[in-house]
Write a structure and sequence with these properties.
The structure holds 2 protein chains of 2 kinds.
Chain A lengths: L10 H21 L4 H9 L5 H25 L5 H63 L9 H8 L6 E4 L4 E4 H18 L3 H12 L3 H25 L5 H21 L6 H28 L8 H48 L1
Helix pairs in contact in A: 1-2, 1-8, 1-9, 1-11, 2-3, 2-11, 3-8, 3-9, 4-6, 4-8, 4-10, 5-7, 6-7, 7-8, 10-11
Chain B lengths: L11 H20 L1 H8 L7 H24 L7
Helix pairs in contact in B: 1-3
The chains are: A mainly alpha, B mainly alpha.
Chain lengths: ~350, ~80
Amino acid sequence: MESINFIDLSLTNCFYLFIVGFVGGLVSGFIGSGGAFVLTPAMMSLGVPGIVAVASNMCHKFPKALVGSLKRAKYGQVDLKMGLVMGVSAEAGVLTGAHYQELIKQTYGDAGSNLYVSVAFVIILALVGGYVMRDTIKTYRSGVNEEEKPGRLALWVQSIHIPGTMVYFSSIKTRLSILFTIPLGFATGFLAATIAVGGFIGVPAQIYVLGLNSLMASATELVIAFVMGLGGTIKFAWSGYVDIRLAMIILGGSLFGIQLGAIGTTYVKPYVIKLVMGVIMLTVLASRALVIPVYLSQLELISPIADNTIKILKNSSFSIMILALILGATIILHALLKGRREHQNLQIINLKIAA
Amino acid sequence: MSQHKKAPPSTPFKLIGFGFLSITLYTTLFVYEKQILNLSSKGKWFFIIPILIAFCFSFVHGNFTSQFWDKLGMRAKS
């Protein structure tokens, strides 16, 4: 096995990772995913080799998702069966996605691999993020803040009966063919191996294709993340790439965050989950779009870009990614505190009426 | 969707206990940093080491963080 360089950790580095972990955990606890897209580059910015950053990120992801899914299961938001069915197929997607990544890297080098990841980010986030955002605005304008109902596509999927493949899922209170859930799980895993955040497709797929409500979909995504994270950790730890110190520092912060994010889901209106997801997806899209010219230039597909400009574009891209996480966290905290205040006021009024 | 059951108020002993255990785990991780890192990055069947450490931390620190927010009054809507 090749020797791996594990970095020396200073107190400042630990604090930085703890804080990024906290914000990432807060977002994950609320929307079921997110945070990973910042954590890997955040570790790499400290000098951690790419593969060690990915491996350590995975190793913090599965215990975080475990704690988050247990917490949200207490609130009755988790469909364990759905999570496990999709999680297993997601694992297959992760392995296939990782294989494609390696193939692209071997054929086109680092710049080709980075370009592939960035283009995938931009296309998927534009399509899915744009749709989620449009739906959120539509729901907000309609003034309907109750539990969402399955859309037309989800109702059609639920109406299809394929003998021998039907499984009952408690989240939608009906039977569904696993021939629908398997490809969606696979796509979630494939995306997780490509852009590190499978939830960007897993959660919207559960909402719009399978008909789960936002709360159920985001909570069930944590089960999928646990299965994927555990499988990914085994794969990377088998080759000795996990820096357990990094993983546990991030976990330290993210467990504070995930508890708070999970609590937040009990106070907010359902569309807020979609709002946070849409805002993060579209902001990350801008971040990745910014670095595409850098990789195009490195592959000599466009005229060369000056080193200084490359540095500015890369730094701006990283800053926008952090902004995406901060924006998401701010909306969550604002919605949590507002919902909590309203709930407390309502309790006071009820007590006064009772008295 | 089903409403969760209201948890009974817990004593601060749990918070203190899990907090103490959590600090102990993190202190051990950094005092024996090199040995633990060597063991967990050996690869092959040693993959079990980082997995066990992660499960152990998630149980102890997860309980601590849960108690932490609970004691600060950050509880789920009941």
